[in-house]
């Protein structure tokens, strides 16, 4: 039960192992789909798996840094959708899509700047 409570409080840490598992097993998964593909072949399947792992890792990293460096901002964003009864479900969905869109753009700029 302590693990479940820990993951409820630190839910962004759940995506880190998922991203690492996707990275670790991407070769095996790719071989199951296409036996002739190379290990580091930038085919559509491996690109999808690596992209998914990158987004999960970036999402976890952004929330973890935000939680550790600006706890009040993290709590405000975390509670915004759950406790705010003044916005409609449509607005909640729009906010979530915009949040993930901006996260994807920021992560892409960060990764592009490193290469």
Can you give me a brief rundown of this structure?
This protein is an all-alpha fold and 115 residues long. Helices cover 80% and strands 0% of the residues.
The helix/strand class is: mainly alpha
* Succession of helices and strands: HHHHH
Shape: globular
Oligomeric category? single chain
**Structural domain tally:** 1
Rg estimate, integer Å: 17 Å
Name the average pLDDT. 78
Alpha-carbon distance between the two ends: 42 Å
Give the helix level as a range of percent: over 70%
Which percent range describes the beta-strand content? under 5%
Largest beta-sheet details: none
The count of β-strands is 0
List the uncertain runs: none
Walk me through the structure.
- It is a single chain.
- The protein has 115 residues and is mainly α.
- The protein has one domain.
- 80% of the residues lie in helices and 0% in strands.
- The protein contains five helices and no strands.
- It has helices at 2-9, 15-33, 44-69, 71-83, 89-114.
- α2 packs antiparallel against α3 and α3 (44-69) packs across α4 (71-83).
- The longest helix has 26 residues, at 44-69.
- It is globular and about 55 Å long.
- It starts with a helix and ends with a helix.
- The mean pLDDT is 78.
Relevant terms:
mainly alpha; single chain; 80% helix; 115 residues; 0% strand
Could you outline the blueprint of secondary structure elements for this entry?
Elements: H1 2-9, H2 15-33, H3 44-69, H4 71-83, H5 89-114
Helix pairs in contact: 2-3, 3-4
């Amino acid at each position: 039960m302590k693990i479940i409570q820990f993951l409820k409080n630190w839910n962004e840490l759940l995506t880190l192992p998922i991203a690492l598992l996707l990275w670790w097993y991407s070769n095996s998964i790719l071989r199951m789909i296409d036996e002739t593909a190379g290990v580091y072949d930038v085919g559509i399947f491996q690109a999808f798996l690596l992209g998914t792992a990158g987004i999960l890792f970036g999402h976890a990293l952004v929330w973890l840094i935000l939680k550790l460096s600006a706890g009040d901002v993290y709590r405000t964003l975390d509670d915004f959708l759950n406790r705010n009864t003044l916005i409609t479900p449509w607005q909640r969905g729009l906010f979530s899509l915009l949040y993930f869109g901006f996260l994807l753009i920021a992560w892409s700029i960060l990764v592009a700047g490193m290469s």
